[in-house]
Design a protein that fits this description.
131 residues; 0% strand
């Protein structure tokens, strides 16, 4: 099994995750609680760390398993959610048609889950210890 550092995405998969993270600085609307559920410390961390993750993806740098998970979950929610994400506006704001997004997202999900494994309960979607 590949380690998270060895995970290789196609250019298309990398661009999709970068775009998904970028949506949280634009049309997607995040709350503190939602940012924490996605594995960030809050909305400020989502924006700061999101920029760093996008840069690492563009530069083909290794990411920690939690950052892979953050990028994937942030992209899934930005794409699919009309409540907090871009939803119906996704194709307009990103230029990615829904059918292409779903195809690339599914391929990326399989790669990341096989490599990173489950993180729920180990930092993703859980409250920090002592909160």
């Amino acid at each position: 099994m590949q380690t998270a550092e060895q995970l290789t995405l196609t250019d298309e998969e990398s661009r999709l995750l970068q775009q998904g993270l970028a949506e949280w600085s634009g049309p997607a609307r995040c709350t503190e609680e939602f940012a924490v559920a996605m594995g960030f410390d809050g909305t400020e961390d989502l924006h700061r760390r999101g920029i760093a993750i996008r840069g690492a993806l563009a530069a083909r740098e290794p990411l920690a398993p939690m950052d892979w998970a953050r990028a994937l979950l942030a992209t899934e929610l930005a794409f699919a959610s009309e409540v907090v994400g871009s939803g119906y506006g996704w194709s307009t704001t990103t230029g990615w048609p829904d059918d292409l997004t779903v195809r690339v997202l599914r391929n990326t999900q399989l790669k990341l889950i096989r490599t990173v494994g489950p993180l729920v309960g180990r930092g993703l979607g859980t409250r920090p210890t002592g909160a």
